[in-house]
Design brief:
alpha+beta; 2 domains; three-stranded mixed beta sheet; 11 helices; 16 strands
């Protein structure tokens, strides 16, 4: 057991790597020249909306296929799976007829759904401890908030940067469009099943409910990546080493490293969304590097099974916090909305709009 626990201690030393970096080359399941559909984003701040494609003066372009937040959303819930049971506390919130795991909450330990429960005081104390440099209390309640980052923006203002950041981008892309035509099952107007629409509002209502032909021209049709599709991920060991704990800092570091390595090596599902199914490029192997503060890059090897074995040993050494099931408290929620002080929480200044936490 001692050998397992100390296996990655060199990564926790001050002279260890600044980060672990993985680079994975991906292709659509249809092939290297297959069409894939990136996410679309709403317009705002000068952005017209649609795909997030940056075009440079030399004509090259980069398209965002899966963001840091989206990647975190795909990875974090793995800790709720049976084979990872016992690595983190099972925190469940019952909100009406809905049950929500803390692992699914948009802003993790800083989310409103967990803030308005009996855990409010414990989480406040944990975030206050973070402000004083002690991450151990939070690791007992919400350790994945340390791994994937959290910001208690509506209370203590404690902020934990992401230890893991993962993004998928496509390079040198061609943007496509597509058109479609909806044909109703019957000609409802000609067949006198419905009256002729009297005006545009009535015609729009018919179209919305599928009673007349509806053309859709020039909508988003995906992209083709002429260069490569690549997943870049980094585990920031230098940031992890800044975490402090009162009882046993080394046990805390090992525990968080175990969770981070498990998440870092987890094979993220290639099916991202409709029209975007990516698999590893068989001609370009996955790269894993130790990156040092002086710029050195050293090849490294680590399997997910090895990371999981280490995580289980370090979780046992650290002592995982207890599982808890709590109820969403309407009274606490009403106080939260009204800005009332509840046990030391901050009330936003009058006239100042509170900015929400960075989403996953």
């Amino acid at each position: 057991m001692d050998r397992v626990l100390s296996r990655f201690d060199n990564w926790l030393r001050d002279d260890g790597p600044a980060a672990l970096v993985v680079r994975e080359y991906l292709v659509p399941v249809e092939g290297p020249d297959g069409v894939l559909f990136p996410p679309t984003f709403a317009a705002g701040d000068g952005f017209p909306g649609g795909y997030n494609i940056d075009v440079f003066p030399n004509g090259e372009s980069v398209c965002l296929v899966d963001s840091v937040g989206s990647q975190a959303n795909r990875i974090e819930p793995l800790f709720a799976k049976e084979q990872y049971a016992g690595l983190v506390p099972r925190i469940v919130i019952k909100a009406g007829d809905k049950t929500v795991s803390l692992l699914e909450a948009g802003h993790r330990a800083g989310d409103a759904i967990v803030r308005c429960t009996a855990l409010q005081s414990d989480l406040r104390r944990a975030f206050q401890a973070v402000l004083k440099g002690n991450a151990e209390p939070l690791a007992k309640i919400a350790p994945t908030s340390i791994v994937f980052g959290a910001w208690d923006s509506r209370d203590t203002q404690a902020k934990l940067p992401r230890l893991i950041a993962s993004t998928i981008r496509a390079y040198n892309v061609r943007k496509l469009t597509r058109s479609a035509q909806y044909v109703p099952a019957a000609d409802y107007v000609a067949g006198e099943l419905l009256p002729e629409p009297a005006d545009k509002a009535a015609k729009d209502a018919y179209a919305e409910r599928g009673f007349i032909h509806v053309p859709a021209s020039g909508s988003h049709g995906g992209i083709i990546a002429d260069n490569q599709i690549r997943r870049d991920a980094a585990l920031h060991l230098a940031c992890l080493r800044l975490l402090a704990g009162e009882a046993d800092p080394l046990a805390l570091h090992r525990y968080i490293l175990g969770l981070a390595l498990t998440a870092f090596t987890y094979p993220v599902g290639g099916y991202l969304r409709q029209g975007c199914h990516l698999v590893p490029d068989g001609e370009k192997p996955r790269e894993l590097k130790e990156v040092y503060g002086d710029g050195r890059r050293v090849d490294a090897t680590l399997t997910h099974a090895e990371a999981l074995t280490y995580a289980k040993a370090t979780a046992k050494e650290f002592g995982v916090g207890p599982d808890q099931e709590v109820e969403f408290d309407k009274g606490l929620a009403q106080k939260d909305v009204s800005g009332e002080q509840t046990g030391g929480g901050r009330r936003p200044k009058k006239g100042v709009k509170s900015k929400g936490p960075e989403p996953k």
